[in-house]
Amino acid sequence: MPVPHGTRNPGATRVTLLTEGTYPHSHGGVSVWCDQLVQGMPDLDFDVIAVTGTGREPLVWELPAHVSRVLSVPMWGDPPQGDPPRGRARSRLATAYEQFLTALLDPRAEPGFAPALYTMARAAADGALSPFLRSDRAITLLTTVWNRPGLAVRESGPTLHDALTATSLLEHALRPLAAPPPETGVAHAVSGGVAVLPGLAALDRHGVPLLLTEHGVYLRERYLGYRTAPYRWPVKAVVLGFFRLLAEETYRRAALITPGNRYNRLWEEQGGADPESIRTVYNGVDPAAFPPAGPEPQTLTLSWAGRVDPIKDLETLIRAFALVRARLPEARLRLFGGTPKGGEGYRERCEALAAELGHADAVTFEGRVDDIKDAYAAGNVVMLSSISEGFPFTLIEAMSCGRATVSTDVGGVREAVGDTGLVVPPRDPAAMAAAALELLGDPARRAAMGEAARLRVIEQFTLRQTIDTFRSIYLELPGLVRAPADAPVPPVPPGELTAVGTVAG
Q1: What sequence ranges are listed for the domain DUF3492 (predicted)?
Q2: What range does the domain containing 76 cover?
């Protein structure tokens, strides 16, 4: 449901933020970043198209008057309203969908992905795509495609259950295509993946320029997540094929890509982005809002801040802490941050691990803290154990507070820290413990690193620099629109529409 928030400013540039699972319905680093942009540019008008879980998530950010509208697009709530296509419209959509599936599974057919996607987007705008994908016809098309001779997925013996699962996952992932896309201004996707779909539709239909900011690498995180997902290989082949080709189409079509670090740039260039369309823009904080944290705690303490989520790899941190405590029995580990809905099982697993290792008395889950600065002040050393990051706010906030840090070498972490903290390989408890012990045992070095870290933030990573850069981008972007996609769907070779005309749907 659209949520009105004030009135738009006449003549102001309109920016539509495209989000997934973050602003304005959730806390976290990306949400903080979105709020910084919105609050920092009261002279511009903002809308938000937010991909959510059920569509019933409350707003958790106070939105200023220049945010005119928030449209929630639920991926797992009720499906979009509409009726199944009929006649020629059904045949046209079936042809496009078969071409779409073929592109996901056959490398030779990948050029057909984009035109098929835009045909499906127009069907979604008419309310026809979701009903079609929930029909028997869509299931039969998939079973026909992935059983063709010569396709690698055929060798894994896909079943009808696999087809039902894969088709359902695609139907949910494509739901954002049914959201009314922006018709003017700039569409700013603050992550890759399904949040970009309304932006691609806006570019194809209305010529609205697309700006992409990746904090983490969405495609990499999907690869990590699906590695342990409870699906058979045929399902993973379809879904990961979709995310890969969607990322490549986004990289090609975006007028500008603004990764939060140079590491992301490598993925984007490999995915087909024009290097000249990429401009690194670091996250920033207000050093006045994160002043020096003051005296360290008397009991040697490691602190961590973030959301309790597998991608933060708290299990490695807890294992590292067990090694620290073997040397420093008085040490403590304090974990600050909320547990997202659905993540309770992961937190319980982490608590069980601490108990299993014999350190439940020294590992505390503090929950959300009213003032995040308290989380950084609570530690002699601030830890970051993630297996994937962009340019993490918790890290530069802790640096601004003058705390020494130990972080995993992922995303833009090394760019952020420089030589003002210790960086260790991810998923390596021994290396993390050794770094923590090194700093816990040297108060003078901790203090020197903390002072250098705050100076690094002031010189390179301030919020004012970030906001000024994006304001300039918003104003210049309408002149950087990429060429429109080819609208027509290329014909499917004879013999590849088997059963299309005979399947009930």
Answers
A1: 14-276
A2: 1-284+463-500
How far lies 473's CA from each of 12, 213, 230, 444, 478, in Å? 14, 12, 41, 43, 9
Ordered strands of the 45-52 beta sheet: 67-74, 45-52, 14-20, 186-189, 210-212, 256-257
- What is the secondary structure of 223-263 as a DSSP string? HHHHHSSS--HHHHHHHHHHHHHHHHHHHHH-SEE--SSHH
Helix (H, G, I), strand (E, B) or coil at 485: coil
pLDDT at 165: 97
Q: Which two tokens stand for residue 2?
A: 């659209």
Task: Give pLDDT, residue 42.
Answer: 95
Alpha-carbon distance of 50 to 195, in angstroms, equals 8
User: Residue 415 has which token pair?
Assistant: 């760019």
Beta bridge partners of 189: 18, 212
The end-to-end CA distance of the chain, in Å, is 30
- Point out the residues of the chain with pLDDT beneath 50: 1-10, 480, 482-505
Domain presence at residue 293:
no
Q: What is the pLDDT of residue 479?
A: 55
Asked whether residue 491 is domain-assigned, the answer is: yes
404 and 475: one domain?
no
Dist CA 181 CA 71 (whole Å): 10
